[in-house]
Amino acid sequence: MIRLRLKRFGKKREVSYRIVAAHSTSRRDGRPLEELGFFNPRTDEVRLNVPAIVKRLKEGAQPTDTVRSILEKQNVFDQMNA
User: Fold this and answer.
1) What does the alpha-carbon distance between residue 48 and residue 30 come to, in Å, rounded to a whole number?
2) Pairing with 21, which of 11, 65, 77, 80 sits 20 to 30 Å away (CA)?
3) From the CB of residue 27, how many other CB atoms can be counted at a distance below 10 Å?
4) What angle do CA 67, 72, 76 make, to 5 degrees?
5) Could you give the 3-state DSSP secondary structure of residue 56?
6) Is the per-residue pLDDT at 82 higher than 70?
7) pTM of the model
């Protein structure tokens, strides 16, 4: 199963995340299938590749709870239904 999840990167105590599509059995920081966006929790900066995310969701990818809340705040699910 393909999951949309966060991949951690950055320095200690200065963490940032990439939103990636990866197999559910692969490691958290392993090689993803595709990088779909960026999330910085310190500044609440979010950059998303919305067409690629919508494509993955339509193919059946399941977001984790955290990624789901980020996508809901950015109204990605509204664009999926349109």
Assistant:
1) 20
2) 11
3) 9
4) 95
5) helix
6) no
7) 0.87
Domain containing 50 equals 2-81
Q: Which residues sit opposite 38 in a β-bridge?
A: 18, 47
Query: What are 34's two structure tokens?
Result: 């595709």
End-to-end CA distance of the chain: 25
pLDDT reading at 81 higher than 80 = no
CA distances from 59 to 25, 42, 73 (A): 18, 32, 22
Structure-token match 């609440």, residue found: 44
The amino acid at residue 81 is N
The CATH number assigned to the domain holding 48 equals 3.30.1320.10
Q: C-alpha 79: how far from its chain's center?
A: 16
Q: How many domains, in total, are found in the chain?
A: 1
User: Tokens standing for 32?
Assistant: 């993803």
